[in-house]
Amino acid sequence: VDVIGADECLVGQVDVAYQYVAGGLDTQYLLASETYTGWRGYPYDTTLARMVADPQMTPRELAVMFVEETDALLSQNPYAGEEVTEHAAIDMSMVQPLVSSFVDLTKMLSEDMKANNGLVSKSRGGACFSYGANAVNVVDFKRFVELIAKNSADEAVKEKCAEIISIFDQTVIAIQETQTTDHQLNGLGIVFPNHSWETPSYYWDYAIMGAGWEDFLNAYWSAAGSV
Hints:
Layout: E1 3-5, H1 14-22, E2 29-32, H2 44-53, H3 59-74, E3 86-91, H4 95-110, H5 113-126, E4 138-140, H6 141-151, H7 155-171, E5 172-177, E6 189-191, H8 207-224
Parallel strand pairs: 1-2
Antiparallel strand pairs: 2-3, 3-5, 4-6
Helix pairs in contact: 4-7, 4-8, 5-6, 5-8, 6-7
């Protein structure tokens, strides 16, 4: 399958995309929402019509087209009332390098988490966004990394953040945001519980936890007294 579309809320997370990659899902692109989807779903009438009209469309063009048509649908009355939607097209070939670089950053920060706890906490708080995501402990991935770079005085940390952001910008190839969510979301989030006891039981089995995210979370929670 070249393109998979998740027509439901909150699937657009780095940890979910990485779960698909680690599980061997053979797909080039993922369409997903970091927050809410529109209540009508994707505009299948216009997207399918464009596919029929252009059968030579590449998988990348198809993924981008779905996001463009979703943006067109949700930018017009009477549909503009769906104020909290966001959809992105994700290049799945970039997910592994994105997570690998991010795990490198978490290891750097964990080396002295007592000193870095305030930096992580402040950056996590700034990466929270509205409309229920905080209730399920999801933060915007790119914004979190940007704030780490902005708030850190460590040049090595800043350089690693720049590397992550560069990879991220190759991972999210198209994004639709409503006026309400514009500048809050960048196309992928990550589950980042503020306390260990807020972590869903199933999340401990996610592949990203075994890749190094669990070690970082435990270091953060321990330094913050939130274990």
